[in-house]
Amino acid sequence: MSRLLYIRYKKPGKVLEGGEQVSQKNWNVLCRILGEHNVDTVYIHDENRKRTVADYLKGAFWFPFGYFFGITPAIVRRLVRTAGDYDFVFIDRSVFGIIAAKLKKSGYKGVIIGFFHNVEILYFKAKLGHKPWRFIITGCADRNDRWTCRYADRTISLNSRDADVIKERYGRIPDAIVPVTFNDTYSKESYPEQLTSRKPLCLFLGAYFAPNCEGIEWFSRNVYPNVDIEMKIAGKGMSRIRDNYYVPEGTEIVSDAPDLVPYYEEADIMVLPIFKGSGMKVKTCESLMYGKNIIATTEALQGYDLDYDRMGARCNTAREFIDAIKSFSENPRPRFNRYCRDVFLQRYSTESVVETFRKILNR
């Protein structure tokens, strides 16, 4: 049986951020196809070791040379030596494209697979805003995406939008599109039967991350004053949101909850006012899995093939959000959205992408 070396950003913790949920899915599918005993994992970051000032200084030093934070020439040399024992090297983030370049230049004979979580220069532009040193990070990300396209034998993107941008920027069409998917962890004999409330509970889910927080603040200032709703925010690190962003008084904030199921089940509507980013939004997929009514922007729905009216609503202006929420208030409907659940099972459960991974591995 073939062996695969899986190069991953960091070891997963109890609360997975969106990108790490995608990484975990990739690992699960690869282990399912090849057997877990044939998949070895290298973590670029050791989350059990507290990072020191020296670590950050070393990371900053290597950025201009194309080594994304956590990567150094010594680490890459060690990975190149290790890779010789494997038939496949799966590089789970395109910001580590320098590893693909060094592998190919070293004469590695196996298959290098590069996975694009985003078009990284667009992702980091959205994340870093106007910070004066952002060009160092975006430049490094851009070079690594280019190296991934040049040196990986097979590349994967999350959606057709990213694939188009990758082709335009780097001259290569990804070999496969694998959307965000989840293992189905919400299969039940019966689902909640309540109708949505006249005063809907709107849930925002996402990590403390600039585009998420900016979207929540925009909603808080432009939509919330014009609707009668309850608001709740849940996500990794969200206890900090009030330090830097406006959130209405009375909004409950839940940070780093290990189990989000109760929050999904009690919510009438998932609200996703995201206006910036790349890739696909993991919380959209998770909301589909739990059969939630979803009101979201075009950006939050990128990569998803959905009937927006049956899902809830696609909204990009304050007026559209206000009208959609008032429609729920005036015309209560099932809190459990069967259409969203069915679409998840058909298109966005992990089962739906196993065959694509088999083709990538020639299995």
How is this structure best summarized?
The chain is α/β, with parallel strands linked by helices and 363 residues long.
Description:
It is a single chain. The protein is an alpha/beta fold and 363 residues long. It has two domains: 4-178, 3-Layer(aba) Sandwich (Rossmann fold), CATH 3.40.50; 201-347, Rossmann fold. Helix content is 42%, strand content 15%. The chain has 15 helices and twelve strands. The protein has helices at residues 18-34, 53-62, 73-83, 97-106, 120-128, 134-151, 160-170, 210-222, 241-244, 261-266, 282-289, 308-311, 318-330, 338-348, 354-360; strands spanning 4-10, 39-45, 88-91, 111-115, 154-157, 176-177, 201-205, 230-235, 252-255, 269-272, 293-296, 312-314. The strands form two sheets. The protein has a six-stranded parallel sheet, sandwiched between helices. A six-stranded parallel sheet has the order 9-8-7-10-11-12, with helices on both faces. Helix 8 links the parallel strand 7 (201-205) and strand 8 (230-235). The longest helix is centred in the middle third of the chain and has 18 residues, at 134-151. The radius of gyration is 21 Å and the shape is globular. The N and C termini lie close together (11 Å). The mean pLDDT is 93.
